[in-house]
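Final report, closing paragraph on structural work. Over the funding period we assembled a curated collection of sequence-structure pairs, and we close with a single example.
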Amino acid sequence: METDFVVGIDLGTIKTRVLIAEVVESGEIKIVGAAVKPSRGVKKGLIIDEEEVTGILGLCKVEAERMAGVNVEGACLAVSSASIKSFSSQGVLTLHGGRQISEREVQHVTKNAQKVPIPSDRYVLHMIEQGFSVDGNSNINNPIGLDAVRLEKNVHIVTAVKEETDKLKRIMKSNSIEIIDFVFSPFAAANSLLGEFDKREGALVIDIGGEVTSYALYYEGVVRSSGVIPVGGFNISNDLAIGLKISLEKAEKLKMEKSIDDSFYTFGLEKVEEIIQPRCEELFNLIKNDAGHDPSFEMITGNIVLSGGGSKLRGIDSVAETVFGSRVHCGRLPDLVGLSELVDDESWNVSIGLLQRGGEMLVERFEEKRGTKDYFSWVVEGFKKVANTF
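Its predicted structure, as stored:
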């Protein structure tokens, strides 16, 4: 059976991860290699020392390659930093006198929505079509054939600082890795945690990293809003270190504890929770205020999903439920095959989602090549290779 590989790379502020999976024609993803090491040279998702990041990534790459028995040549790369900016754009077309909408009008209004003046120092990571509105009736997927006076098209755009994406390209190139796709972290997490039903009915995914938290709001099958909040798990550790007068290292471990040894510490869990809760409330209120600007936010009651290493914090789901006023749960990955025990943790959600994005790209390319003479060579010749066997 035809086999290929996909690779996901997550250069987090706290951890650097490289994940390799085998993909067969059926679309099944099998984990075959994984490596994780403490990050260096990253601050709030921004690269502050290219040499340090290049070195750590190189170590992870070699370790994952040895485990998987493949050479990594390309990868989907997660992006999440305090510099990310997301916004929506709208194209409008007036059909004077009213008439039936044709393909020509659809193409015209779509181009208008995409013609957004992007500053030269920004790089477009994603431009996501959100659907049409016809005479004020929104969330219409295909307006062709409808009679209308006013046709609107909405798109959601995610941008990063170009200097940062240039740094990432150089770091990847130094490790002989081609970037197959940039993926905003909460989109990757959603790939691994949400099904099509969840995205259609409405869901809010919150990926809590070390120094930044990113979110993506889904409704009617597409992203409605997204953003980054410059608060993460490290802020909570710092609060504990100051409030309890302990080292940052001890605070980092303490915030995840389910119980406390009274013979070792002079305080109990109540004191820890007293310090943690305000920071968590601040984080979720910032997200609520940011995401709440989109009307779809009111439609997602009961489907708020926490992801990332910060989601393992004791009691964080309860705080989120209080702030959002609805059920919140920590996202757990579906059953995986292969070396699944290596990634059985919420902090791998983004990396798993990157693999799934790579798998989707392979399937898309496969469908394009179906029935052609290079049926079995489409990956090697027609698709930027992700990995190659030794």
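The chain has three domains: 3-82+162-193+333-389, 85-159, 196-330. The two ends are 18 Å apart (CA to CA). We thank the funder for supporting this effort.
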